[in-house]
Amino acid sequence: MKVFGVLAACIMLLQSSVICRNLKVVPIEDKDYWYQEGKNRIQNQLTKKLSVNRAKNVIIFVGDGMGLTTITASRIYKGQINGELGEENYHSFELFPGVGLIKTYNTDMQVPDSAGTATAMFSGIKTKSGTFGIDATLPTGECDPAVYEAAKVDSILKWAQDAGKRTGVVTTTRITHATPAAAYAHVSDRDWECDSEIPSQYRDCMKDIARQLVEDSPGKDINVIFGGGQQQFGFGNGDGSCVREDGLNLTAVWEENRKAEGVSHRFVTTKGQMEELSTEEKVLGLFDFGHMAYELERENTEQPSIVNMTVKAIRMLQKAENGFVLIVEGGRIDHAHHDNYAKLALTEAIMFDEAIAAAVAMTSRENTLIVVTADHSHSLTFNGYPERGNDILGFAHNESDKKPVYETLTYANGPGFNVHRKEGAIGAEDYLWRDPTLMEDRDEMYYRHFAPIFEKSETHGGEDVAIYAIGPFSHLFNGVFEQSYIAHAVSCIGNFGPSKYLCNSSISVKAVSVLVLIMSYISSRLV
C-alpha cells in the first residue's frame, strides 16, 4: 500500500525517560480510496433485506454510560491495541443494519439516572430519576400501599415469562443495582437493595430489591442470573455497605424455593463453578461481594468475564423450546467514567463489544433479535486537533504549538480535578493545571483524566444515545425515539407483551411491499 510518511510519536514523559509510541503507517487515502470505500458501503447496504419474521429470542445489551463519545473512543482504542491507527475500526455492533438515536430524559430530570432509564427500556414507560418498576405517581423514597400497587409496571421479563419463554439477566455490577434490577423489581428508591436501607416505616409496604428477586415474580422465575452483590443477599462477609438486618441468607432462600418448585438448580460463586453448569433449569451466580472486578483487575480473581457469562447464559437459555429473552449489562463502563478512569471505561466497552460479537456468532439472524444501546451517556469529551493515529489516551497537542499540553479525552467534571490542579495556582495570572506529560501514573488503569470542575463522582450526560439492532424487524429501530419505545418494539417483534399484535406478519409484509413499490417509482423518476 502506498504511504506518505510515518507518524513517529516520541514524547518526553516522566522526568527523565522517553516513551516512544509505536510507529504507525498511514496509507494514501486519495479520491480513489474514498470512492471505492463509498461504493463498497453502498453495495453492502443494498444487499440488506428487511426481515419480517417474529423473533423467537431477544437479547438486549445495555452499555451503562456508553455514550457516543465512549463508543468512538473505545473503537479507536480497540484498533490501536491491535496495531492499527484506530479511526478506521468498527465495533461489531456498529455494523448492525438497524441504527437510531434514543432520548434519555426522565420525567423529572433533563439528565437522567440509570433507574429511570432502565424502566423506560424494560417496561415501556418513562418515570422519575431514582425509581424503577413504577410509574411517576409514587413519590420518591416513600410508600403508600395503594399508590404503590397501582404504580407498578411489568417488564419485558414478565411479558416473556407469561408467553412461556425462558429469561436471563447478566451484569458486571451488583445484580440488585439500578439497571438489572429494573427488569424485575419495583421500588421508589434505587438504593433499597437490602432491608437495612429502607426506612423502618416503609418496610412492611415494600420489600428490598434482593428479596424481590428471590421471592417475587418475575425475579423468582428468571432462569439465569449472573452478576455481583453477595452482600445484599446476606451471603458471606462483605464491606458492610448493605448489611441485612433481617438475618436472611437469601441465596439459601433461593435454593430452598427452587427445591420446593421441583426444578434443577444451582448457586455458584466462581468462574469454574459457572463453567460446570449444564442442564440446570435455574441458576444464580453471584461472583463478588459487591460489583464485579473491572476487566483489567480480573486476572487474579475467580470471576468470569462478561463474555464468559454471556456465552454461558445463551447456552443455557437456548434449550428453551419457546425461545428466551436475555438482558446483558456492561455496567462498569459507567463506574469507570464516574471516577474519570478513561482507560478502564474504554476497556470495559471493548469487552462489552466482544460479548455482543459472541452472541451474534451463537445465534441466528432469522429468529433472534439483538439490540445494543446505552441507558445514558457521560460528560466525556473527545477534543482538540490530534493527528490521525494519535494515542487516544494521549494528548491533543502539536509539538510546534506553544500552548500547554492537554489530553484528547477529558471530562466536564469529576474527581480528576484534584489530580490535575496545580498546587499554589491562585488566579488567572497562573496556569491552573499540572503538565500531564509529567504525571508518572498516566499509563496506569486508575489514572484519572482531566476535569475542570470538581465533583466527587463525575456526572452523566444528557444527549441522545445510540441504538443498534440486528435480526427480525431490526428496521424498527431506524429513527429517533423515546427510550420507552425500546420495550414496545421488543414486545412487537418478540410477539409478547402489550404491543405484540402490532408486528403482524401479513401487515408488515404488505407495508414492505408498498415501500418497495414507492422506492422503485421514485428511482424511475430520477433516471
Automatic annotation (TrEMBL):
Its EC number is 3.1.3.1. Keywords: Cell membrane, Glycoprotein, GPI-anchor, Hydrolase, Lipoprotein, Magnesium, Membrane, Metal-binding, Signal, Zinc. PROSITE patterns: ALKALINE_PHOSPHATASE. Gene3D superfamilies: Alkaline Phosphatase, subunit A. It is an enzyme of class 3 (hydrolase). Transmembrane segments: none annotated. Residues 1-20 form the signal peptide. This is Alkaline phosphatase. It comes from Cloeon dipterum.
